[in-house]
Structure formats: structure tokens, C-alpha cells
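// run 5 | inverse folding | seed 20
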């Protein structure tokens, strides 16, 4: 069998350099003693007759051509070789073969698909009246057509003009993309394509994210009213205080003793004045009156210091931000030295430290949202009012302070010094720009020439 198969195939392969389809059909016709061998080519899921054995030309509108294409399509649609008359165990449909045999008085028909890999590219139909086709005949025709299919397909493809070849290549590629095979890979590919299109074409709201801190313009400094020693401290940093609340009390012992001494001197001066009046000593009386006035002035100063010994709050409400004096009890303080630093709870604003590379996306009047670390479940809307003209270095990065004022006021629990994350609304950009613009800017700076 192998020798017969080889003796048929190799001459046919050489003939395929000429009119390939006709050569294959004529060779098979001579080999198997058939009255006629037809070769059809699959085109858009239909079989189109391309060659008739020993026939250089035929009319495509002939009835026999249409009928031959019908029996070829019957074998193509069933993806199997069809033998007529059918054997006893046949399960294939042979309706078209029966009609063709009756119409053209053909006793025996063999129709075999031509395969190229897993695809059917054509169909061969053999007709004869001398003897039926055996299984060996069917197998040899199948092997012969399979061997010749690659060369036939190559010649068929190259025989078309450039535009048609390109259209076929595109159609083949699209069939692989939209076919039923490799479903998951195609689904992932479609998702990737959809994501790429979305990331490059559809603009999204972009927000500049930066650390922020709550601040207030009104800072109050509390100083020591006179030289003294710390006796009692009533507050610590973080405490909220109100007008009249005591902050600190200086030691009053020395002042009390000095007050008592001056009060005694005042009484002595009054007695001396009375004695001088009784003795009609006008000059002495004037001297003691002057001493009394001096003593009273000193006493007034001491009593003023006593009234100022307890330092109190002189604003409506504030929060202690600096001044942890609990560890300095008994320590001396000089007049005018700073004791506490307080911040007013009113007129609180947010200061956002925007990185230098994001400053171009921030303009005056942009709104944004602030989430405070102590209560991140809610965001507070603000509007940018001012951008600092100078940069500050924070965490080894140049930043610009952007001032934002709250649109709807501030809650009562806001305190200067609280930190959080602010997001300033900027222009819309694509997702690709949002994810890549910082890296691209970095490369531009490093690689420019």
C-alpha cells in the first residue's frame, strides 16, 4: 500500500507546479479508473468547483457543476468521506449522492474532504461505473489529497491579487479572534483591549493629593507679668480654655511680705504726719506726707503684681499649643518671658503642602476635600485662596504651601495642628496620564538634552 501511495503522490506533486487542481483531478482519475474526478474548493463555507479531470474549461452555470457542488457540500458539512452506495453500517446522510446518481446514471461515488491541518480546504469527488470504491481506495484518496493540500493551498493563495490575499489574511486573523476556540484567552484579550481604550481615551477627574494641617492666623502669647517663681500650673498643651480661665499662678509669698511691710510703713507715716500737725511743724509734716505718698505708690505696685500673679485667658476661646510647665514648678521666670502659646479656635484654615511637580495642576479657586486623621470617615470641602511664592523643603522634597478656606464653616472639634490628607480637584485627564505623568516627567528631567 505504501508503494502504491508513493508512486501516485510524487508525480502529482511535480504536476502541481502547473495547473495544480486539474493535474490532481486527472491523476486520480487515471489511477483509479474513474469516469470523472472533480475538485472543489471551500470558500465562505460553500464548495466551489475548481477542476474536472481531463477538462480544461467548463461553464460554472452548468447544472452538473451545481449538482457536483451539492454532493461535495454534503461531505464537507458532515466532515467525513461519503461512499455511495452506502455500506450497511452507514450513519451519514447520502441524500445528495442518491439524487446525483439517479440524475447522471453514476453507479459508484466517493467524496473525500481535503484537509490542511485541522481545517477542510476542499473536497474531491470520484465517479465510476466499473466497480465500487473500497476502503483502501477511500484511504488512498484521503492521504493523497492531504499530502497535496498544503501545496494546493499555497498555489491558490499566491494566484490571487494582492488585495484579495490581504483580505484573506485579515479574515483568517479575525476568525481566530472571534471564533469559538481559546475562549478565556480571547476574553482576557478583549478585557485588556477595553481597558487600554478606556485608559487612553476617557478622561477622569484628577485630584492632587498632599498632606495638610489645620492652622489659624491668631496666635496668642502669654508672658510672665513680673519676675517670680512658678507656683501652680492649671493647664497643659491641648487643653481648650475660655476667657477668665486661670493658666498659671506665680508664687506670692514675697509679694505678701512686701505688702505687709509697706502697709506698716504707711501707718508709721500717717502717725508722723499727725504728730507734726500737732506740733505745728509744717516742714516735718511735708516730709512725712512725701514718704507716705511714696509708700502708697510702692504698695499699689505690689498689689498690682498680686492681682497679676494668676495668669488668665484674655480671649473668648483658645487651645494651648505650647507651654508644658508642669515640670517647671518652682522654677524662676523673668518678666516678659514666654509662658504659653495659644491658638484661637476661630478662623481655622487648611494649609496643604503640594509637591513641586504637582503645583501646575493647582490654581486659585480650585475646590478640594480634606480628611482629618482623627475622623477620616468624613471629608470637608475647601477652596484654595493663596499659593505661597516660596518653596519649603519637607521630607527631602520641595513643597509649596497652599492655603484653603472651608466653604461651609468648620466643626467645633477642629483644632489647629490637626493633620490629614487633602485632595484638590484639577482638570480631567485620562487614566493613562494619571498613572504615568509623574514617571514621564521624571524621565524628561533626567534624559533631556
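// decoded
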Amino acid at each position: 500500500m505504501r508503494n502504491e501511495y508513493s508512486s501516485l503522490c510524487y508525480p502529482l506533486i511535480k504536476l502541481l507546479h502547473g495547473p495544480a487542481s486539474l493535474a490532481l483531478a486527472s491523476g486520480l482519475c487515471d489511477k483509479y479508473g474513474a469516469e470523472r474526478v472533480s475538485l472543489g474548493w471551500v470558500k465562505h463555507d460553500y464548495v466551489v468547483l475548481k477542476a474536472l479531470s481531463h477538462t480544461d474549461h467548463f461553464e460554472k452555470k452548468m447544472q452538473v457543476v451545481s449538482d457536483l457542488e451539492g454532493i461535495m457540500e454534503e461531505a464537507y458539512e458532515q466532515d467525513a468521506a461519503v461512499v455511495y452506495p452506502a455500506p450497511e453500517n452507514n450513519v451519514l446522510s447520502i441524500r445528495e449522492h442518491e439524487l446525483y446518481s439517479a440524475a447522471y446514471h453514476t453507479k459508484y461515488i466517493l467524496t473525500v474532504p481535503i484537509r490542511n491541518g485541522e481545517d477542510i480546504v476542499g473536497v474531491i469527488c470520484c465517479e465510476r461505473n466499473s466497480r465500487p470504491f473500497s476502503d483502501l481506495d477511500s484511504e488512498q484518496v484521503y492521504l493523497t489529497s492531504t499530502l497535496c493540500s498544503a501545496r494546493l493551498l499555497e498555489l491558490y493563495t499566491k494566484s490571487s491579487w494582492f488585495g484579495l490575499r490581504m483580505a484573506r489574511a485579515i479574515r483568517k486573523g479575525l476568525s481566530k479572534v472571534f471564533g469559538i476556540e481559546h475562549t478565556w484567552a480571547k476574553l482576557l484579550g478583549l478585557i485588556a483591549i477595553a481597558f487600554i481604550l478606556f485608559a487612553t481615551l476617557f478622561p477622569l477627574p484628577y485630584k492632587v493629593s498632599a498632606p495638610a494641617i489645620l492652622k489659624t492666623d491668631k496666635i496668642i502669647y502669654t508672658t510672665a507679668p513680673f519676675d517670680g517663681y512658678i507656683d501652680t500650673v492649671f493647664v497643659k498643651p491641648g487643653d481648650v480654655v475660655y476667657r477668665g480661665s486661670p493658666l498659671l499662678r506665680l508664687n506670692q509669698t514675697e509679694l505678701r511680705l512686701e505688702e505687709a511691710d509697706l502697709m506698716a510703713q504707711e501707718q508709721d507715716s500717717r502717725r508722723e504726719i499727725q504728730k507734726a500737725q500737732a506740733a505745728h511743724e509744717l516742714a516735718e509734716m511735708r516730709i512725712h506726707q512725701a514718704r507716705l505718698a511714696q509708700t502708697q505708690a510702692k504698695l499699689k505696685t505690689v498689689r498690682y503684681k498680686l492681682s497679676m500673679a494668676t495668669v488668665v485667658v484674655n480671649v473668648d476661646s483658645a487651645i494651648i499649643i505650647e507651654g508644658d510647665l508642669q515640670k517647671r514648678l518652682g522654677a524662676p521666670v523673668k518678666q516678659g518671658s514666654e509662658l504659653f502659646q495659644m491658638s484661637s479656635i476661630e478662623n481655622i484654615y487648611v494649609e496643604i503642602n503640594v509637591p513641586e511637580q504637582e503645583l501646575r495642576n493647582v490654581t486659585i479657586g480650585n475646590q478640594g476635600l480634606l480628611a482629618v486623621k482623627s475622623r477620616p470617615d468624613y471629608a470637608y470641602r475647601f477652596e484654595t485662596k493663596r499659593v505661597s511664592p516660596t518653596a519649603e523643603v519637607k521630607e527631602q522634597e520641595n513643597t509649596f504651601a497652599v492655603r484653603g478656606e472651608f466653604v461651609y464653616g468648620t466643626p467645633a472639634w477642629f483644632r489647629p495642628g490637626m493633620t490629614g490628607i487633602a485632595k484638590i480637584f484639577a482638570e480631567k485627564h485620562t487614566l493613562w496620564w494619571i498613572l504615568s505623568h509623574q514617571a514621564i516627567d521624571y524621565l524628561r528631567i533626567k534624559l533631556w538634552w
